[in-house]
Amino acid sequence: MKKILSLAFVLVLSVVLAACGNSEGKDKKITVGASPSPHAEILEQAKPLLEDKGYDLEIKTINDYTTPNKLLDKGELDANYFQHTPYLETEKKSKKYKIESAGDVHLEPMAVYSKKYKNLKDLPKGATVYVSNNPAEEGRFLKFFVDAGLVKIKDGVKIEDAKFDDIVENKKDIKFNNKQSAEYLPKIYQNEKADAVIINSNFAIDQKLDPKKDSIVLEKPEDNPYTNLIAVKEGHKDDEKIKALMDALNSKDIKDYIKKEYNGSVEPAK
């Protein structure tokens, strides 16, 4: 009887230890959903830094703006890396996601592209400008035209909060076409279907466009609220593996890589 009890105890202990071992192993794995460029490329550079700390980074490339938050909220990812704070807040409000920022990593200055015109003031009356269907960035699109003196918005409306409905003066009667997802905009630009196209830099870079060289206007990085961040489920930003991920992404090695690799088309977070 004693032998049977001893054997049972050993078996139970083995199961418990195995479970603990699996749990520990799981805690050493970090699964991040990311846009292909530059997010996944930056994460690849962080892999060896995390390996030195005992972590295994798995990168899941996702080339749209709707899936990463859905997967994160379901718990299928530890983190995602593709969005900025205004977009995150819009997603949380509209879809009730329980996710939050763990910290900023980089800024992708947005840019305006045109195969027909050299600057915004050259646009003809009634010009069509293609933009994404992302409502969190309408103010970001409009800022290009406000700064160029072509558009005015309602008094008291902050530019980052502005919507197309807030336009009170449009000197050239510019039409903003926002019927398409951001990932399709480079194709519209390449097919010369628009007078101008505003493209997020990650999709521009992914299609071999250089935001600094190929655009007609590049967004300024100073006081820019659109820094890309690492998002996690609420209550997990202080997890050890998330802290390790942020330490790696904010390290000098990664900042130097971003500066050298992207030459101003992507900037490290300040």
From TrEMBL:
The keyword Nucleus does not apply. It comes from the Bacteria. Keywords: Lipoprotein, Membrane, Palmitate, Signal. GO terms for cellular component: membrane. It is found in: Membrane. It is a lipid-anchor. Residues 1-18 form the signal peptide. Its main location: membrane. PANTHER family: D-METHIONINE-BINDING LIPOPROTEIN METQ, METHIONINE-BINDING LIPOPROTEIN METQ. Belongs to the nlpA lipoprotein family. This is Lipoprotein. It comes from Staphylococcus arlettae. The lineage of its organism: Bacteria, Bacillati, Bacillota, Bacilli, Bacillales. The gene is metQ.
